[in-house]
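Board notes (copied after class):
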Amino acid sequence: MRARQNDEVILTTYGRSSGFCIDPVEKKPLNHFLPGTPILSFGTAGCNLSCKFCQNWDMSKSREMDILADQASPQAIAEAAKKHHCRSVAYTYNDPVIFLEYANDTADACHEQGISSVAVTAGYISSPAMEDFFSHMDAANIDLKAFTDSFYHKLCGGHLEPVLETLKYLKQETSVWIELTTLLIPGENDSEKELQEMTQWVMENLGPDVPMHFSAFHPEWKMLDKPMTPPATLSKARKIAMDNGVRFAYVGNVHDSEGDSTWCPECGQLLIERDWYVLGQWNLDDKGCCKNCGYELPGVIESVPGQWGSKRLPIAI
């Protein structure tokens, strides 16, 4: 993704994308950031990790630049997002730290149009690039892949500690809204011991209000020998997180309305009902507080929910 040109290192994927699509923001997944609204998603090619279980391996592992068929300037992306009434733009599919300059410029163009920017990233980035990149972002879903360095080294070609440093930086030094996602792979990162340690670390370092998403693994890329994650494993992880004090724990990639929905941690009231990506009951007042007890839901919550639903709309720019 980088090359030498005129004695400078350039980003060869700048202005080039593998495609543009409007998704529900909950698909990123973000449950506490502009719920129910459409988000314009795009990525490029390549990655700085080599996860053997990558769910987007056709883009992130690609060495074929021909997959980058769509071209768009940052300004064109912002205009498209505005035209289609998107509230935010997501840098996703492959890790946006790979196309940092393109993402940053696009975020600037989007901010000029009143449109937010969302990073969907593994958080594997060093300072000062980390400071530069996240200064342009409004929200991020960080892929906390596991809680052992051996997992990161063996299955991702990386290390755990840089990701933890990114998370602490985001929480302590920025106003970026963050949510976490862990893809639970049977026999690799789903033990009770590891889930206990992970969720306890989140509580101690990030606090109780950072949502955690536990998603089901589907055999992909170089891990076709592993079975799909049983729904019971996701429910167990959610319970462990909440028992350790995490107020908002969710399940993903399975149909589980209870595990997808947001519940008031104070009185138990259903606050935001979700059926896959479709919102149902909305029991928040116009200030984003529980109608039953007045608890203020953390996040970026508007007075009324968006109505985008589960639609997926590919677009050309």
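Comment from the instructor: The chain has one domain: 2-315. The longest strand covers residues 177-184.
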